[in-house]
Design brief:
Number of helices: 1
Number of domains: 2
Order of helices and strands: HEEEEEEEEEEEEEEEEEEE
Strand content: over 45%
Radius of gyration: 21 Å
Shape: elongated
Keywords: Signal
Distance between the termini: 48 Å
Number of strands: 19
Structural class: mainly beta
Helix content: under 10%
Length: about 230
């Protein structure tokens, strides 16, 4: 039964991730990942990240598109969060592990493993598991999940980003931020500007960006050089 369930989950993930080519990514190996690629023309909008450098690894994950809350004896509240990846922590793992605490009581907290199973053709359930299923979200379809390679930040890792903050005349505004564990470090958030009358290149913290066009709502650009490690 276990191998059958594992096969169902594997087939489910394969169908969901058909658009994501895992062969293009290094899986289960810590890397420094830069987005977007150097030399690629990219358009983002006000408030979007233009440039990002992050440390972590790609893992096989499922990402629910729904929230679920259950109760268990002892006053435990059990949760599945929408938009949060639940991943196999090793390539051979049989179960998935969330990147958040999914079990909480008045005096303790616990991170439960997660299992996925097809109950009948096209209908799935996802359960928090500790020897037995402690709560399940049932009657879910493939469209209720994303799946495939997912970038997971390394604990205490350092990330850098540049965000577009708009245009005033010839002056473009940007926000540089540093993050640890995905959380912004307030003391390391800075605004900087580029005057297009003086040129179309933005350079900050080792990153170099060539600006192709910009309005107050969007910007098109190419990365010439990423943040320097």
């Amino acid at each position: 039964m276990k191998s059958f369930a594992a096969g169902i989950a594997a087939a489910f993930l394969l169908m969901l991730s058909s658009g994501a080519n895992a062969g293009e990514r290094v899986m289960y190996q810590e890397i420094t990942d830069n987005k977007p690629d150097v030399g690629v023309s990219t358009t983002v909008y006000l408030g979007d990240r233009m440039l990002e450098q992050r440390r972590g690894q790609y893992m096989d994950c499922i990402v629910p598109k729904f929230d679920h809350t259950g109760k268990a004896l002892g006053g435990w509240t059990l949760t599945i969060k929408s938009g949060e990846p639940i991943c196999k922590t090793t390539p051979s793992a049989k179960r998935y592990t969330p990147n958040y605490v999914n079990g909480q009581s008045a005096v303790a907290q616990y991170t439960y493993d997660v299992v996925l199973k097809e109950e009948k053709p096209g209908s799935y359930k996802i359960c928090l598991f500790n020897m037995v299923n402690v709560t399940c979200a049932k009657d879910k379809a493939k469209s209720d999940f994303e799946a495939g390679p997912w970038f997971v930040y390394s604990k205490s890792s350092f990330q850098q980003t540049i965000e577009y903050a708009g245009r005033n005349g010839d002056v473009l505004k940007f926000i540089y931020s540093e993050f640890t564990d995905g959380l912004a470090r307030e003391a390391f958030t800075r605004e900087f500007q580029v005057d297009l009358s003086q040129g179309n290149v933005a350079a900050y913290k080792g990153a170099i960006i060539e600006i192709e066009s910009a309005s107050n709502a969007s910007i098109t650009y190419k990365v010439v050089r990423n943040f320097q490690q």
